[in-house]
Design brief:
By secondary structure, this protein is α+β, with helices and mostly antiparallel strands. The protein is about 30% helix and about 20% strand.
Length: about 220
């Protein structure tokens, strides 16, 4: 069965560039962005890992832990980190899981279940291993995305999604299309007008009976 939003993120133990972890212990009540790569020393992924390193302070501000995975050994990751710094100017500053057995990739549906762990495989053999999972402090999956090999991921969008998830987790609102931090949000349809008066005493704008816009709650 494929993982779905709302599922508990499967637990596992693995070696990383920062030591051995148990995933549920790594989460430890935090938000986590868990993102995968098909193979070390691949061009698009090299740029992505550097971009995430440069943006780590944005995730830190939001209490989000980062963790990457590539289906190569940790030793290869350590060598790859040198290339990433050469290319992007950024040092990888978060753990990268070594998954040469493909166990974690298969657990998370990042690769075909019949894929081989042959060390001579090419990146093209692993074309499905380019996912992003956002996991909440409750260890439940909140967001899943999969990108094609040819398209680098937009991690500014991942930050935007984190902002939305963290806001909507507690404030009885949803975020509209293309929403950014600080913009108006939507009062949930499940919140009656009477309840909304208590939650949003400053009032709101009714565009349709089912669409009530309100300034972003603090």
């Amino acid at each position: 069965m494929a993982l779905q939003i709302g599922d508990i993120a499967p637990d596992f133990e693995a070696e990383t560039t920062e030591g051995r972890i148990r995933f549920h212990d790594y989460i430890e009540g935090s938000w986590v962005v868990f993102f995968s790569h098909p193979k070390d020393f691949t061009p698009v992924c090299t740029t992505e890992l550097g971009s995430v390193a440069k943006m780590k302070h944005e995730f830190d501000k939001r209490g989000v832990k980062l963790i990457g995975i590539s289906i190569d050994p940790v030793e290869a990751h350590q060598r790859w980190k040198n290339d990433i710094k050469d290319v992007t100017g950024a040092s990888v500053n978060y753990p990268m899981i070594g998954d040469e057995s493909l166990d974690v990739a298969k657990l998370y549906g990042m690769i075909h279940p019949n894929a081989s762990a042959n060390p001579n495989r090419t990146a093209a053999d692993n074309a499905t291993v380019r996912n992003v999972f956002i996991i909440g402090p409750d260890k439940k999956i909140k967001f899943i995305a999969a990108y094609p090999m040819s398209t680098g991921r937009n991690f500014n969008e991942i930050v935007r999604v984190v902002d939305s998830l963290q806001l909507t987790a507690t404030k009885s609102v949803a975020t509209p299309s293309d929403w950014k931090q600080g913009e108006d949000v939507i009062i949930l349809a499940s919140v009656s007008d009477d309840a909304a008066k208590e939650k949003f005493p400053g009032g709101w704008k009714t565009l349709k009976p089912y669409l009530r816009m309100v300034p972003q709650p603090k």
